[in-house]
Design a protein that fits this description.
2 copies of one chain form a homodimer. Chain A is of the alpha+beta class. Helices cover 40% and strands 23% of the residues of chain A. In chain A, strand 7 and strand 8 form a beta hairpin. Chain A is globular, with a radius of gyration of 17 Å. The relative contact order of chain A is 0.21. At the A-B interface, helix 3, strand 7 and helix 5 of A face helix 2 and helix 3 of B. Chain B binds a DNA duplex (30 and 30 nucleotides) through strand 2.
DNA sequence: CAAAATACCATGATATACCATATTCATATA
DNA sequence: TATATGAATATGGTATATCATGGTATTTTG
């Protein structure tokens, strides 16, 4: 039995005329093992779709309920936006989900969808936008290596 | 039951046309005992592949989830880079993993892969690049021996 | 009843799991 | 010290299973 459930890797799949895309097999495994569902919404900060398990959204909701003061008012507003936008996506027997027009348009996705793992979350990009975004981030990291320390210090 | 699981030693194995390499037996033992998986990604700072257990990445993901807000920009960028690039590698009954073209290219690996233990993590180098890197490190240590102290004290 | 959304089937490409052989390494023995 | 012996590991090859994707049937909904 696995202990960890992380969305990893970067995988490009085709989107057909109906908006159908294969959810990467690894991602499906996580959904099955946690007996949850995938939830997607428009990213608030980038031209991409953001996704996670419904389980994670439930946790977020619980956190807000239990300790309101822990979250700033701004964050509370943002969370509202996400919950309002989020939609549940279940995949069929062949492993595909059907993305909505609204989401595809926001992410400017036409032919291909690029799934990018983010640990507990993942994103879906158009090839062009992801290429730009990855370049931007790599450039940024080159200039400020200290950020990486977070990782290095994580030993025990 | 063992308490510490460190990736040690330097081992060279062949990479075949499909990118298959034997994971050093010692490394396999660690993976089995922790019932986890190996995760590899391109080093952000050197021409080599970096690897660790999925367990370690899981800790990182947990830290990110807890220590910062859901919407921090830096965290967002960093998680994209690390989790988006990282890929899970499970070994078959003979102990081999199949490295991807992307990773091999980044590390300039063709014939042989050099596994270098780094404690909680390890690296995979081409023979040429590792020779250079090792020489560089040894030279650096010669010039500033005090640094070594820091390292020695770090073990427990 | 028409249109759209959803579920199922078929196929080729790709990746994975397994078997067989060679090599290395450690131990024992002369 | 050199050599024999056996076990563990590494490596080459091949069969098998999985996955992505195009197409079609079936159900839902207005």
């Amino acid at each position: 039995m696995r202990k960890s459930f992380l969305f990893l890797d970067t995988i490009t799949n085709k989107v057909d005329a109906k908006g159908r895309v294969s959810l990467p097999a690894d991602y499906r495994t996580i959904v099955k093992e946690l007996s949850t569902e995938i939830v997607c919404y428009r990213s608030l900060t980038a031209p991409c779709i953001e996704g996670c398990t419904e389980e994670l959204l439930e946790k977020l909701a619980a956190d807000i309920e239990n300790s309101t003061d822990f979250f700033s008012e701004d964050q509370d507003d943002l969370t509202n936006l996400i919950f309002g936008d989020a939609k549940r996506f279940s995949f069929d027997s062949t492993g595909r989900i059907v993305l909505t027009e609204k989401l595809l348009k926001h992410a400017e996705i036409t032919e291909n969808a690029v799934f990018v793992g983010k640990g507990k979350k993942f994103q879906i990009w158009s090839e062009e936008n992801w290429a730009k975004e990855e370049a931007r981030i790599r450039e940024k990291v080159k200039l400020s290596r200290p950020c990486l320390r977070i990782k290095e210090n994580n030993n025990d």
